[in-house]
Design brief:
The protein has 14 helices and 11 strands. The protein is of the alpha/beta class.
Length: 319
């Protein structure tokens, strides 16, 4: 039987798709379409007939699998670990945990959730490669790195693959990449010529990016805020904490597909207790925003709206 997999457009989403594909093939099934999705489509996603009417791909529609993304009642498999996984209250009220419908915000990564659920409920036996993949996604998706330095230098193979999944060309090679995560070691995958080029480009851009952060970041007490020019620098998500280790929070604004994306996160290496759930805070104050306890984001129509939201965050979290 063929399924269509919709997965969050990041490394955790693709890793989750790899685990699911490995499980499906172990029982004689396969995937018809691999479709990365992000929160820019959430207004369409909440429609009951989204999977029949969308134009993300053409051809026959198969039973739906959704991984690391918003809940939809038409999905026959759904796994997610985001605390803000429901965009319609009636869907949330009707949702019940089941064999292949699991919402577990306590998991560091969706990849690990999918692996554990399929082991328990589907008799899945993951390979050593899949188990290693899940361990690394727990590090990457929950920001459980050893240090800001580790995130900047990215010497480990898994972190180098994270670089690759941030490249806009990755979606065109999703079938290859997701299969490679099943069939090859992480180190072997990094020998791919395009991935090597991504890594080399990243290393070159790190120097320029750090210099830009130094010049253009605005520091408001315990929060650093920066607006990055479109496609000019790597995001360097943890650069503020690398450059200013005493910051508690960082806000970053970027542009993607005509929208402005605000990302807001905690300094994971600062030992001060954080009592505010960022995902819930963003959901409450900004329509369509959300995320986890220590990191979240939202999409805005203009740069001005995103920067006003950033100032609102500064006022709240510097109080």
């Amino acid at each position: 039987m063929l399924y269509d997999i919709y997965f969050h457009d990041d490394f955790d989403g693709r890793a989750s798709a790899a685990v699911m594909l490995d499980f499906l093939r172990s029982r004689g099934d396969d995937v018809g379409h691999y479709t990365p999705v992000d929160f820019s489509i959430q207004n369409e996603w909440v429609k009951e007939r989204f999977f029949q009417t969308h134009r993300l791909f053409s051809g026959k529609r198969n039973p739906v699998i959704v991984l690391d993304f918003l809940y939809h009642p038409k999905a026959v498999f759904w796994f997610d670990h985001h605390s803000t996984a429901f965009r319609k209250e009636d869907w949330k009220k009707k949702f019940r945990q089941s064999k292949f419908q699991k919402w577990k915000p306590n998991y560091f990564s969706c990849c690990h959730l999918v692996m554990d659920a399929l082991k328990k409920e589907g008799g899945y036996s993951p390979s050593v490669r899949i188990e290693e993949l899940a361990r690394w996604l727990d590090v990457i998706d929950a920001a459980r790195y050893d240090s800001a330095k580790q995130t900047i230098e990215k010497k480990e193979s898994a972190l180098q693959l994270e670089i690759y999944t941030e490249d806009p060309r990755v979606a065109k090679r999703d079938i290859w990449f997701i299969n490679a995560l099943i069939e090859q070691s992480l180190r072997s995958i990094t020998n791919d010529s395009m991935i090597k080029k991504c890594i080399q480009k990243y290393q070159q851009e790190v120097r320029a990016g750090l210099a830009y952060y130094k010049r253009n970041s605005k520091i408001y007490g315990v929060i650093g805020v920066i607006t990055l020019p479109k496609n000019k620098f790597k995001l360097l998500r943890y650069a503020p904490f690398y450059l200013w280790p005493n910051l508690l929070y960082a806000v970053r604004i970027t542009r993607k597909n005509g929208s402005f994306i605000l990302s807001f996160g905690v300094n994971p290496w600062h030992h001060q207790e954080k009592n505010i759930h960022i995902g819930n805070f963003l959901k409450k104050h900004f329509p369509g925003a959300g995320g986890h306890k220590n990191v979240g984001g939202g999409t805005f129509n203009s740069k001005k709206e995103a920067e006003c939201a950033a100032l609102e965050i500064v006022k709240k979290f510097n109080a």
